[in-house]
Amino acid sequence: MSVQSVLAKINLCRTRALGGRWFQCDDCGETTKLFNSCGDRHCPGCSGAKRADFNEKASQLITPGADHFQVVFTVPEIISTLALANRHEIADLLFGSAWKALSKTIETEQGYEPAAMMVLHTWNQQLAAHWHVHALVPGVGPALEGDGVKQATSPWGNPERAYLVDAINLRSAYRKAFLRGLRSLYRRGKLSFGGSTEHLQNEVEWNRLLEGLEQQEWVSHIEPPPANDRSEASDVVGYMTRYLTGGPISDHRIVSASFNEVTFLAREGNATGGSREQVPLSLSGEEFMLRWCLHIQPPQLTKTRCFGGWSNSRRESYQRKMKDACEVSAQRDSEATAAAPETDTPSEPPQRCCEHCGSERLRLVGQQPKPSWSEVLGLDSQHSPWWYAESQELEEERAWDAIMGEGFYEFYVENVLRPVESAREPLLPGLEAEPVALGSDWYNDSF
């Protein structure tokens, strides 16, 4: 029901069912109604404030003047398929394995305390299951031996290109850590199998899969900052912020949509560390919705996590040590500031304007509080989408029949619920809740 619940909330976003505010225009006298949003993190039209808040907090972690890298850790296709029935387990394993590999390699090769902020993505350009994490990693940190701050350097002494760690060593450590954790999950019976992965319940098939994964080359791509320029870590933060909420596809990629078919722009294949030209891809409406729903995550699954020096428990101490890093490359930073391009910042919310004449002279004249979701999507709610109400009633029937016996729910509805409902006074057709009127004194005191 979690997927259907998300779809039902999005379906009711910015509709009368969620209440809202009523504004009167001082120029034309017409009323503009602004209904409340659903606020679900999967809704393409919501959570702008959450993204702005994340962007601000993440930007505070960046060390001015230091190189920052984007590191992408990807799992093989079969693991992405397995993750659909084991979302929490695979997400935890993916985050944990990526951090173990990253921290161990940085400590071994560079000798400083590592830090990282990671964001989970579960899709590719075609909206298929493609689980991976994007990590923002500073190329500098407090030295593990002695005092001061140490910067990542290339073993070949090439100062013209930023360097983090050996990509081959990182890839090997990541694969080793992930497969170790995957074996542990299987041994403890923590994995569920079904559909195309059902055969993996057989231990022989499972071991054969692991042998193939051990021989396969895994992807952990290190994207350095621009050559001959300072790192624009805020660009990586902006990229992570863009896909933090709102689902796997933005509106500008959708070319056309109808009940039968959806066409959107997507890259053909996956180019490691690069990009390819986007081409139109058409899917049936049913297939498009199926792929979109693959990326609806449980409410308890955290898509953004911080590790090492940026973790909650160590952040204050780490940031205090990193103050010295601002002085390490202060000269380079000051020289690049004048030529540095402006970075994207969360845009201000649009100014309210009258939907009839475009005037911004609006007065709040009424409001209707946003009801709880239990009211909006309850069994007896008049606002619940019909398809959600039917599925909810079916779940209710199955639950009661499992407890009381086959046919109990139908008997209860026919002999108890319907007689009670028919005895109630019927509502007048078309009756709608009106907003609470606000006096001029309330308006003047509030704005």
Helix and strand composition category: alpha+beta
Indicate the radius of gyration in whole angstroms.
27 Å
Instruction: Please work out how many helical segments DSSP would assign.
Output: 15
Query: Given the C-alpha coordinates, what overall shape results?
Result: globular
Give, in order, the helices and strands: HEEHEHHEEEEHHEHEEEHEHHHEHHHEH
The proportion of residues forming helix, as a percent range, comes to 25-40%
Main pleated-sheet profile? 5 strands, antiparallel
As laid out across the biggest beta sheet, the strand order is 8-3-5-4-12
* Mean pLDDT level: 83
Give the number of DSSP strands: 14
CATH fold title of the largest domain = Replication Protein E1, Chain: A
Distance between the first and last residues' Cα: 41 Å
Write the CATH architecture name of the largest domain.
3-Layer(aba) Sandwich
**CATH class call of the largest domain:** Alpha Beta
Task: List the domain count as a whole number.
Answer: 2
**Poorly predicted segments:** 328-350, 424-433, 439-447
Task: Estimate the strand proportion.
Answer: 15-25%
